[in-house]
Amino acid sequence: MGTNLKLLTNYTAMETKITNSFSFIKKYFVLIALLAAASIYLFSQPQGVRLGSDRDVIPGYQGWSGDPDTLTVYIDTSFTAEEKDSIRTAISRWNDAGSVPRLRETSDAPGNISFTRHTFASDTLGLCTNSTDANGDVTSSTIQIGEDQGGLSLSELATHELGHAIGLADTDEAANPSDVMKGTGPTNGSDGTLSAHDSTELAAAGAAAVAEDTDKKVAMNPMAILPGEFAMLDFDLGEVFPPDVIDQTGVFVSPIGDPYLFVESAFIEANLLRVGVFSDPLHGSGNLYLAVELLFPEPYSPMRFWGTHYIHMFPAEPVTFECPFSFNEDDGNVHIDWVEQCTYPLQHPLRAELVVDGTEHIYQRGGGNYTLMLDPGPHLIELYVDDYQVNNAYYAQDILVTGVPESEKAIDFVVYPNPFSQLCRLECPDDTRITIYDMSGNIVCEIQEGIKHWKPSLDLAFGIYFIQFRTEDQIKTVKVIYRN
Ligand SMILES: [Zn+2]
Hints:
The chain has helices at about 1-20, 25-35, 80-95, 155-165, 195-210, 245; strands at about 70-75, 100-105, 115-120, 125-130, 140-145, 215-220, 230-235, 250-255, 260-270, 270-280, 285-295, 305-310, 325-330, 335, 350-355, 360-365, 370-375, 375-385, 390-400, 415, 425, 435, 445, 455, 465-470, 475-480. With about 475 residues, it is of the alpha+beta class. Bound molecules: zinc ion.
């Protein structure tokens, strides 16, 4: 309730400040008030395999399938009575903060959200997996609690993971040390009680679920803006508008679910919407969201979108980087290792989202590499990494999970995918020497020992190549097709 009151105050202030017509803002407020919270992971639709490319829009969390009022939470029998109470504390925290859908414990398995245990690699404390349908709406969520909780109480860890299930993204530890939703680092200092920023994100998440069909536009500013300072955000409207059209256009811009952000001015200049914003110095570091409505004169149609950008205490300069990962499998566990290979050149913490087969969205408390249980067979693994602000990278590869225990595997040399574009994986024992030849027998590349992929240099022609694997007692050559 507290959250809604803050929203009301904020929206009312915005109306008097910058607009003459309140209809759009009222519509937004009513939607938020009625449907309130749900979610906003920086979620994304799979867009085919690509490397190192920027997200061109902020992918939007779309809420739960069927927009339920209540989600059931099942806590499985691996938790003691005392541990179940800790998870109930977490459930109450989100309900008390105004979460819609509300959360309600059930004794029937599975719940919409299910708590279970899993044995993780040591750097993984908890994992939330949201399953989505073809529309991108969440259909179920599984929360796995690690044996090692890294010094976090169960109630704090459970609060964090439940936040993902209702649509909140990880936040930057360095800038938001008291957030329960921070993606890495120690306790938030209050054993998992929500911070003001957690509550703001909950409100924005609710609005995002309501506005699932609304376009999103990221501001063109190359860096995050600073809390507590005035900033001008520019949004590309896609066409140049003549002055007389601009004069007759109604421009309505307001913050979404954010009592710490204020719109000071908003106007169109040629092809840009320019929005002057000011934020409270206490504004958390993360995303900012603006509801934008532009009412153009005939014959132009109205334009509505969410303007988004980043606000951050420690703005990162724009850089490009890549986040390739390697994959290996041992006795039913699949390891996705990316941390050591990520080329991010700055000191900011990073956030990752792993998407399996386009429908399983995995968030991991504590950051780091992933250890997963996957069914045998082919899987598409997509990794999104960002620095909680302007810089991001994407990497995807098809993997084949054999399900065969390591001890039963014969030594084999495998290249996949084949044919490939950009990069192929090389499966072989660690001490294998790998040499790549072209059709004429010329050496094209010698792969450094320990590296299990081949990424041809950009000037190498497409065509057929031969990959030779050589160990102490074996030699094998695999024909591979490199194509566009
Ligand atoms: Zn998380």
